[in-house]
Design goal:
Elements (H helix, E strand, L loop, with lengths): L1 H10 L8 E6 L1 E5 L5 E6 L10 E7 L3 H5 L10 E3 H5 L8 H24 L3 H10 L1 H13 L7 E6 L3
Parallel strand pairs: 2-6
Antiparallel strand pairs: 1-4, 2-3, 5-6
Helix pairs in contact: 4-5
């Protein structure tokens, strides 16, 4: 009986693979192919209590992988608005800001690594996210949509 359930799970894509997990992501940052920030897209369908769109297979570092090593680390293709856009809470102190900035640098470098392997356009997005003025622009756009610093965010490349 269990093998039928396992077969069904594989058939509909529910198989678990090491390094991947299902993740609900609330916001998408849309960039043009040249890396220019375009807009913030609400993936929740406009529902206030919704956590976002479920992505069934996202690359995911475990908690141990995130905190191990000499520097701050982040997920590769999604993170909090705080990490991606340096969107801080009013009560965040300098220690928190320094930690988040380290995670931001790691996120941007992960995009560069991904660009080398699979999608060259990510270099342009990494360049944009490395620019403080662009991060402020993205933060303002997220706040206009009522995003919170702890909300999950991913990136997308438009082909225009």
């Amino acid at each position: 009986m269990l093998h039928l359930l396992a077969d069904y799970a594989r058939y509909i894509g529910l198989t678990a693979e090491p390094g991947f997990t299902a993740k609900e992501i609330r916001w998408e940052l849309l960039f043009k192919k040249d890396g220019t920030f375009s807009e913030v897209v609400d993936l929740s369908g406009g529902e206030k209590k919704a956590k976002g769109l479920l992505f069934p297979k996202c690359p995911s570092l475990s908690q141990g992988e995130l905190i191990g090593g000499p520097s701050e680390r982040s997920q590769a293709l999604y993170e909090s608005a705080q990490t991606i856009a340096l969107m801080f809470k009013a009560d965040d102190d300098d220690k928190v800001k320094k930690r988040v900035q380290g995670k931001h640098v790691f996120f941007v470098s992960s995009l560069v690594d991904c660009a080398k392997q699979a999608m060259p356009e990510l270099v342009n997005i990494a360049r944009t996210l490395s620019d403080e003025t662009s991060c402020v622009q993205i933060e303002v756009a997220l706040k206009e949509k009522k995003a919170k610093p702890t909300d999950t965010v991913t990136i997308a490349v438009g082909f225009v």
